[in-house]
Give the backbone structure.
Amino acid sequence: METKRLLFLLRQPPYGSSHALEALESALVAGVFDQRVSVLFSGDGVWQLLAGQDGPAIQRRSIAKIVRALPQYDVTALYACAEALATRGLGAGDLSLPVAIVTRDEQRALLAEQDAVVND
């Protein structure tokens, strides 16, 4: 199987619909099949990275656990939109795992490098 560069562009908030969960699960599956998977959290998708989402008050499946599992599935190229984080008052210390914080220009370059982009 030929290895492809796949970027998952996650812009949906973590809860309220199944979009975020399904996109993250798809990224995990792609990682299992030895694809070069990257994930870019942008817009409200940066909320998926927020630490502390898996406490006892959460009654549904925790997005945070899936996000933290990405590196275990060889999905280690993780990015967050600098503007989206700043707009929401978030910084690297608020996130559940380390990500590269990228500018709009860096995001455009990242998108251009991919064989396919999967939107949530």
Observations:
- The chain has a mean pLDDT of 90.
- The longest helix spans residues 19-32.
- The CA atoms of residues 29 and 86 lie 30 Å apart.
